[in-house]
Structures are given as C-alpha cells and as structure tokens.
Write a structure and sequence with these properties.
Elements: H1 16-30, E1 47-52, H2 58-69, E2 73-78, H3 90-98, E3 104-109, H4 114-121, E4 125-131, H5 137-151, E5 158-162, H6 169-180, E6 184-188, E7 203-205, H7 209-214, E8 218-221, H8 237-244, H9 248-252, E9 259-261, H10 274-277, H11 284-303
Parallel strand pairs: 1-2, 1-3, 3-4, 5-6, 5-8, 6-7, 8-9
The structure holds phosphoric acid mono(formamide)ester.
C-alpha cells in the first residue's frame, strides 16, 4: 500500500481511496503494539522531529510511540524550550531543523495554516498535528478507524457532533473525512458556537439535543475550548452541561447500539457525565489506542520504504 503524497496537512482534498489506504495500513500495523516486543525495524535510520507549540497528551505521546515502534529516532521540541522564546520565526526555526537532516516534522500550532507554511518552505514530510481551529487530520483518521471498527463501515452512517463547533479543528476534520466516506454529519451546540452557513460545508444542524441524539449511530462530544473562547459565548458551564451535555437522560433516548466518542481531554460533568464517559457505549479509549496505529500508518506511508 502506498500514498502519492509527501505531507499530511488536512483531510480536505483527500480521496476516499487514500483514507481507506491509511485506515487499512493502521489495521495491519496495530498488532505490533500488542506484541511482547513492540518494535519493528521499518523506519530504522529515519529521524522525526515532534514540534508542539500547544499542549498535548494524546497526540504527542502517540506520535512518539508510533515512531519508536517503527524504530525511527525522535526529537521533541516545545515552544517554551525552543529559541522561539528569543524571537526566532517559525520558518527560521524549521530551516535550522532541516539543516540537521530530519525526514519528517510533526507540528502542532495555535495558528491555522502553520503546517502549510512549513510545507511551502521545507522539502521534507510535514504532518499537521492540529493547527488552530482549522484541522486535526490525524484525529479525523483515528476517529474514522474507531467508527469503522465499531460499525463495520464508514458509509451510510448518521454521526452527530455536539459542542463547540466553531473552535473545533476535530469537528472540521471529522466532517470532511466522514462526508468523503459517505456518512451524514449533524452538528449541535450553542448557536454562538456553530459557524454561520455551516450547511454549505456539508453538515446538517439539529434544532435540539433530542434531535441530535435520536437517530445517531455515532455521537462525538467536543471539549469546551476555554483557551480559544475570546468572548462570553454561553452563560455558565453549569447551564452548558444542562443544555448541551450528554447524560443518562439523553442516552435513554439514543439508539441501543450508538457509540459515544470524545477526542479528549474530557471536561467531566460538562460535555458528558462520568457514567456516559465510562459506560458500555464509550469507545473513547479505543480512539486513543487507534491514535498510535493511525500515526504508525502515516509515518510508514509518508517516509517508509514505499513512500512517494
Ligand atoms: N485529541 C487530542 O488532540 O488530544 P491532545 O490535545 O491531548 O493531543
């Protein structure tokens, strides 16, 4: 299996065939994480720089583990410990890193488009690990892998994404990826946190929590991103939890075989109650496990022996 691209900047423009290749590769590589010795030599001699300008637990750790399980060498850099604190620009930083001959830079940045800017200036693989409120393509891919495992397919499903849609790069990547694969996406949340004309992007908008939950095969709850809220866009977290949170009352109205997802980190008691987060419908930790497999697949396809 191979991909005819050097970078992963977003799911926008990615074909159903490419998505299927990545998910199938992830399925093949996943078992490595459950062997007694969780390492294969596939990327021996390759070097990957993980450059995280924003906090991360799941994405950063799973990229590191993915690289190590494929025997790549890794270097981690964060904004606070790099010379960015002395005023060095992103491009200068990247050019200096390039001078040390890495094969791939994985970047998370608070500014939308930062990975695209790097890709214009740097002739090695760039992977977007989340850029501002724009895209989080590896999260979109691991969400699709989790849905495919739970439902056996990615077409003809109804997926409801609930919460702060405006600030969510996960919502955007999930919408693009799921639409490409033939599923229907419905958004619901405070009106102030749903972008105008979102229907033109291919999403429906539910009029109530009941409507969002009732027919859904998959419910994806989003984190309230307090770090990106520059205005008072809903009254209080308590009221948010009552009106837009997923609790046992909502689960009773949902389909019996619905699965519940969340990209993490969860604000327990805000987006969802602990009973829902830890209940039998929750595949949240499957998402995390799949994160390692999807990132192994991307590293293999972008810089491995069969890379373009
Ligand atoms: N889902 C996700 O991006 O989590 P982190 O911010 O912990 O990486």
């Amino acid at each position: 299996m191979s991909l005819s691209r050097r970078n992963l900047l977003g799911l926008d423009g990615m074909s159903a065939g490419e998505i299927t290749t990545i998910l199938d590769t992830a399925e093949n590589l996943k078992e490595i994480s459950y062997r007694p010795i969780r390492k294969v030599p596939t990327l021996r001699g390759k070097t990957i720089v993980h450059f995280f300008y924003e906090a991360s637990t799941r994405t950063r750790t799973s990229f590191e583990l993915a690289a190590k399980r494929l025997s790549a060498d890794t270097v981690s850099l964060s904004a606070s410990t790099s010379s960015l604190t002395k005023g060095e620009t992103l491009i200068d930083t990247a050019k200096n890193l390039l001078a040390m001959s890495p094969d791939c830079i994985v970047i998370r940045h608070s500014q939308s488009g930062a990975p695209h800017l790097l890709a214009k200036h740097i002739p090695i693989s760039i992977i977007n690990a989340g850029d501002g409120a724009h895209e989080h393509p590896t999260q979109g891919l691991l969400d699709m892998l989790t849905i495919r495992q739970a439902k056996g397919r990615l077409d003809g499903l109804k997926v409801s994404i609930i919460g702060d849609i405006t600030h969510s790069r996960v919502a955007r990547s999930d919408l693009i990826g799921l639409n490409t694969m033939g599923s229907e996406v419905t958004f619901y949340g405070p009106r102030t946190l749903i972008p105008p004309a979102v229907e033109s992007l291919g999403a429906k908008v539910a009029g109530s929590m009941e409507e969002a939950v009732a027919d859904a095969d998959v419910i994806i709850m989003l984190r309230v991103q307090q770090e990106r809220l520059t205005d008072v866009l809903f009254p209080t977290l308590r009221e948010y939890a009552q009106r837009f949170g997923l609790g046992m009352k909502e689960m009773k109205a949902a389909k019996k075989d619905v699965v519940v997802m969340h990209p993490g980190p969860i604000n327990r008691g805000v987006e969802m109650s602990p009973e829902v987060a830890d209940g039998p419908w929750s595949v949240i930790l499957d998402q995390v496990a799949n994160g390692v497999a999807v990132r192994m697949a991307l590293l293999y396809l972008l810089i491995g022996p069969e890379a373009a």
